[in-house]
Amino acid sequence: MKIAFIAHDRKKEEMVNFVTAYEHVFHGHQLYSTGTTGLRIMEATKLSIHRYMSGPLGGDQQIGSMVATDELDLIVFLRDPLMAQPHEPDITALLRLCDVYGIPVATNIATAEILVKAIDRGDFAWRDLVHKYKPGVDE
Q: 28 a known binding residue?
């Protein structure tokens, strides 16, 4: 699976703790992240993560472009609902794209826990069907 991690500043430690706890689940998947979040995760784990720019500098849009081109299967985006973000339009656009393309996105730790347990059980096999029957793909 292709999984992206994004975390607002006050949620970065929570993201690092979450990914560290489930490092065994994320191992073997293709991982992506915005700048600092990815760096902090890699410093705390043995995971390799392709890092994009920081969210406010375009990283959210770069991950959004992966959603729009069907290159992501899941996003864990720990948002800080109590802090205004200068790049709020980018965040809204990313979440809208996830809805348009049917990409599961967790915006809090409770939902992230449910999704990572589903990955561990193999419940994301439906994503293979999405790709198999995508227009223009030979069977």
A: no
